[in-house]
Design a protein that fits this description.
about 575 residues, mainly alpha, 5-stranded parallel β-sheet, 31 helices, about 5% strand, globular, ATP-binding, P-loop_NTPase, EC 2.7.4.9, Thymidylate_kin-like_dom, ATP binding
Length: about 575
């Protein structure tokens, strides 16, 4: 039997396909996995895959990508799959030609009818007997994928070509997979991986596959029916509902439960961090990102000995005296994380650490921590980076700088790493920024849109409106913006990109406009965990902001001064 697993990135298909292979072997079946352990078994196929993922090849068109992917699958078929089936093995694949139809047809927009003949040629008439579509909410898949990168130490890895298109690609690919499954229900089984424990999914999958192997038919296409939608959620009860969801998730995906607390202030979040700290110290430390309250500092002190790099990462942009002292203590154990965390810091304490890092040979990390720093010392370091050919790190060090000197260096760096240069233009509307956005809008839409964060110009809004039709990063770029154009974009995109629309309101006060849009999205998307999480983050930050402003307001009232005019 030939069994194929399909699904978007982060769906869990690789994990489940390997679990199935292991279980079938224990049951006495001879099994070959064409992507055992997540790695293609054909060396030639691996080299082709590296080519299709290379982010430097942005000009590669969808047809060229399609034929390269066909070549990869054809080689896997000839070298691994066909021989295994000839031996009488159960052969399992993690992606086959259905992926190319979904990616190039659904994702890239080519017509499926034009793609099918080439797929038939590549298949040599050999198609899977059973296809397992591991279906998942794309927002949840993205959270799991990000968590996986953190846990594997790959959080700073560059995006693939596919990743640079934006998160909307996964939505379109998922829709294409579901359409394929509806056309051929006898061959496809849909396994939902949204809210079930892994052991339950594994057992139901094994039962279904063994039934096929024994000649018994599976009576339904969906192995795990979607659960009934929960009752409506409002802004006033979003805290209770969010923590109910987190506590339920903790039993089946504790790492994800801890990850969902990232950056969320307040006592309920801290209580759960304390409960998770012994089992998941690294994730707890990272979840403190940007928090500056006493409980956060106590947790950092407790965790600094066991997970120093994670504690350093979890400092975010905190620049208080306590952060300087902690970075000094952490440097010996996690120098790179400490140095990279000095962004926008031009203090003597920050420069003392940078000088230490330079002496210790950590030039690349020092450069990555120079974002937003424009003093003469920073340019000496950048010159040293250029001499060492650390072009990507030098480019990223220019983040937030709009001076002529910074623009000239960006121009010089474009031939070496144009994506890093593009990242450095976030929030800017300089000639280099405008030129790169126009050049890369098609191949690296995600980075182009994110580089618009905070930019309030007609050109930027036109680009956001175009981008919002295909991917959610158009909404990422309006994070914290309170202009009429930002609210108009949020309202128009709320149904297509609900979780991102909600997260874009983080940092805004909980006024009538914010509450109204939150209520609308929560009513429509009550069962989606990413939406619930982002909604509570908006509410929690708004409450924290209000509490921080209370002492100033109280003092202003005592003195008879308008609190809103104090800074002026």
């Amino acid at each position: 039997m030939f069994i194929d697993f399909e699904g978007i990135d982060g769906s869990g298909k690789t994990t489940l396909s390997n679990l199935l292979a292991a279980r079938l072997k224990r049951l006495g079946y001879k099994v070959a996995h064409a992507r055992e352990g997540g790695e293609l078994q054909s060396p030639t196929a691996r080299r082709i895959r590296d080519l299709t993922r290379d982010a430097k090849l942005l000009e590669m068109g969808p047809r060229a990508e399609f034929f390269l992917n066909l070549a990869r699958d054809a080689q896997q078929l000839e070298e691994v799959i066909a021989p295994a089936l000839k031996r009488g093995d159960v052969c399992i694949t993690d992606r086959y030609l259905y992926s190319q139809l979904a990616l190039t047809g659904g994702g890239r927009g080519l017509k499926e009818a034009q793609l099918l003949p080439a797929c038939e040629l590549a298949s040599q008439g050999l198609w899977p007997d059973l296809v397992i579509l591991v279906d998942v909410d794309p927002d949840l898949a993205r959270l799991r994928k990000r968590l996986g990168k953190v846990q594997s130490g790959k959080v700073n890895d560059a995006d693939s070509r596919k990743g640079l298109v934006g998160a909307g690609l996964a939505v379109r690919v998922r829709e294409a997979f579901l359409a394929q499954a509806r056309k051929d229900p006898a061959r496809w089984i849909i396994l939902e991986n949204n809210d079930q424990p892994l052991r339950v999914l594994e057992q139901r999958l094994v039962d279904a596959v063994v039934a096929r192997l024994e000649g018994r038919e599976q009576p339904v296409q969906r192995l795990v029916p979607a659960p009934p939608a929960p009752g409506a959620v409002s802004v006033d009860d979003v805290e209770e509902r969010f923590f109910q969801a987190v506590d339920g998730l903790e039993a089946r995906e504790p790492q994800l439960a801890a990850w969902l607390l990232n950056g969320i202030p307040g006592l309920p979040a801290h209580q759960r961090r304390v409960a998770y700290a012994e089992r998941l110290p690294g994730l707890v430390a990272r979840s403190l990102s940007g928090l500056d309250d006493d409980t956060a500092w106590t947790l950092r002190d407790v965790l600094s000995a066991s997970v120093p790099a994670d504690v350093a990462e979890g400092l975010g942009f905190v620049t208080s005296p306590r952060s300087h002292a902690l970075r000094q203590r952490l440097y010996a154990q996690a120098p790179a994380a400490v140095l990279e965390g000095l962004k926008r810091q031009d203090s003597p304490e920050a420069w003392a650490l940078r000088e230490r890092g330079m002496k210790d040979g950590h030039l690349a990390a020092v450069l990555l921590g120079l974002v937003g720093v424009d003093g003469e010392e920073s340019w000496v370091v950048r010159e040293a980076g250029m001499q060492r050919k650390l072009y990507s790190e030098v480019a990223r060090s220019l983040g937030g700088l709009s001076t002529g000197r910074a623009e000239a260096l960006r121009d010089a760096l474009i031939p070496h790493d144009r994506l890093a240069v593009l990242k450095s233009t976030t929030g800017l509307e300089t000639p280099v920024a405008v030129g790169l956005r126009e050049q890369l809008e098609k191949g690296a839409l995600k980075l182009v849109l994110r580089s618009l964060t905070g930019v309030d110009t007609p050109r930027a809004w036109a680009m956001r409106e175009r981008g919002a039709q295909s991917t959610k990063e158009a909404l990422d770029s309006v994070d914290g913006m309170d202009s009429p154009a930002a609210w108009k974009l949020r309202a128009s995109a709320a149904r297509r990109w609900p979780a991102t629309v909600v997260s874009s309101m983080r940092g805004l006060p909980l006024v009538a406009e914010t509450r109204a849009l939150l209520e609308r999205i929560l009513e429509e998307q009550a069962g989606k965990l990413p939406v619930l999480r982002n909604a509570y983050a908006v509410v929690a930050h708004a409450r924290a902001l209000e509490q921080a402003q209370r002492p100033a307001r109280a003092l202003a009232e005592t003195l008879g001064v308008d609190a809103g005019r104090q800074e002026a």
